[in-house]
Specification:
Blueprint lengths: L11 E7 L5 E7 L2 E6 L13 E3 L4 E4 L1 E3 L11 H8 L4 H6 L4 H10 L2 H17 L2 E7 L6 H18 L2 E9 L10 H18 L5 E4 L8 H13 L6 E3 L7 H7 L4 E4 L5 H10 L2 E4 L1 H6 L8 H7 L3 E3 L13 H10 L5 H7 L2 H6 L17 E4 L6 H4 L6 E6 L2 E5 L2
Parallel strand pairs: 1-4, 6-7, 7-8, 8-9, 10-11, 11-12, 12-13
Antiparallel strand pairs: 1-2, 2-3, 5-14, 14-15, 15-16
Helix pairs in contact: 4-5, 6-7, 8-9, 12-13
Length: about 400
């Protein structure tokens, strides 16, 4: 794999493009950043002499943002997929020794280099489809040395692939086997030892918790949030996936960046998120894989003005998805999002869910050059097709990272 730094610069004038509303547009890139964008006939004369990149009528969008992934892990869990097909529930799989804990065993057994190699292969699939920023959670180590290992790999992925990576510490993902029956002891370890150490090492951009009957209680979740708040780290939450625990209201009180899954979200939770400016992250891949029937309250979120992001939730157990465009299609077909909502969900709102709204999710002057050229005639095709990759060119961090011009 060539070094990202050796890829061609995207500096120049990108002409012959069409925006999402079908209008002609031009993008000027200088020193890896967007210097100007707008209608071709409004281009400032100062940019006229830049080298030209002919878009040839390509549709252009911001670089895609995958705002909820568990990309770094050992092993895989196809056997659990078969168990669920045979009738086992998510909770029954977990109680049988499967679920998150099975990935913990495989992740602990893998070296950092092995985890980097497997995560790199998965990441390349997402990058080839136009992803320019991604979140990577820990949570399959559940011990300091192994959580550190996962987060170190996430940082390596960023530098090796030239992609913006936001790391999220998910130490409170499940109770490790050695702490069975001692949930409070483990939460104390997460809050007093693991999080402070990883924060000191510069490995944590946000903190997450799996708040659910089979995971951690509201009180335990709040302890983790308090520890994060004391260190000045933003929080997010796996909320209301299997039941209404009231996690969204708690997360909103702590100004959470996002609440994710939210199939069982109540109106009180919707209102709390709206007041706090918390993003709702929809994860149709997990909904589909688990054959869930409880839809997220899309109409209530829409009515309250809660921004809705869409993500792969890539993980080995419940969403082995490596296509953000497929998730956009699923968000439309399963959750009834409109096409503009789905596109905003994998760009603008996804960036906001990671706290990256000032640098990602839209094409604007002053931002790093992250945008995608698509061989498509209509914006609706971004959510319409599945099983193909209509990317022509990906400009990522100011370089031509995928395709050509």
């Amino acid at each position: 794999m060539p070094s990202f730094d050796t890829l061609p610069s995207a500096d120049g004038l990108w002409t012959g493009l069409r925006s999402l509303d079908g209008q002609p547009c031009t993008i000027a890139v200088q020193d890896g950043r967007i210097a100007w964008t707008g209608a071709p006939d409004a281009m400032p004369a100062a940019h006229a002499g830049l080298p030209r990149h002919a878009g040839q009528g390509a549709l252009v969008t911001p670089g895609l943002v995958d705002c909820h992934t568990h990309l770094v892990y050992g092993g895989q869990r196809a056997n659990e997929f078969a168990m669920r097909l045979a009738g086992a529930s998510y909770e029954e799989v977990a109680k049988a020794g499967g679920g998150i804990v099975s990935s913990v065993r495989a992740t602990r057994a893998a070296s950092e280099d092995e985890l980097f190699a497997s995560a790199s292969a998965r990441l390349r699939s997402l990058l080839a489809e136009g992803v320019c920023a991604i979140e990577v959670k820990s949570g399959y180590g559940l011990a300091l040395e192994h959580e550190r290992k996962q987060l170190r790999v996430a940082r390596r992925l960023a530098s090796a692939h030239g992609v913006t990576v936001r790391t999220t510490f998910l130490g409170a993902h499940a109770l490790p086997p050695e702490f069975q029956g001692r949930s409070q002891d483990y939460i104390d370890l997460v809050c007093r030892e693991m999080l402070p150490a990883l924060h000191l090492e510069g490995l944590v951009d946000a903190v997450d918790v799996f708040c659910e009957r089979i995971a951690f209680s509201l009180a335990e979740t709040e302890q983790v949030f308090q520890a994060a708040q004391a260190l000045g780290i933003p929080v997010k939450l796996h909320a209301e996936q299997l039941s209404d625990m009231g996690g969204a209201q708690l997360a909103a009180r702590y100004g959470a960046l996002s609440c994710d899954h939210i199939e069982h979200l109540s109106q009180e939770g919707v209102d709390a998120m709206a007041a706090a400016g918390t993003v709702a992250v929809l994860l149709p891949g997990a909904y589909y894989t688990l054959r869930d029937t409880q839809l997220p309250p899309i109409a209530a979120l829409r009515a309250a003005g809660v921004p809705m992001a869409v993500s792969t939730d890539h993980n080995p157990g419940t969403s082995p998805a490596l296509s953000l465009l497929l998730m956009a299609n699923m968000a439309c077909t399963l959750f009834r999002l409109t096409v503009p909502e789905a596109i905003a969900g994998i760009t603008t709102h996804a960036a906001r869910a990671l706290g990256l709204q000032e640098t990602h999710g839209s094409i604007a002057a002053g931002r790093p050059a992250n945008f995608v050229l698509w061989d498509l005639n209509d914006a609706a095709e971004l959510a319409y097709w599945f099983g193909q990759r209509p990317v022509r060119t990906v400009v990522r961090q100011g370089r031509i990272a995928e395709g050509s011009v």
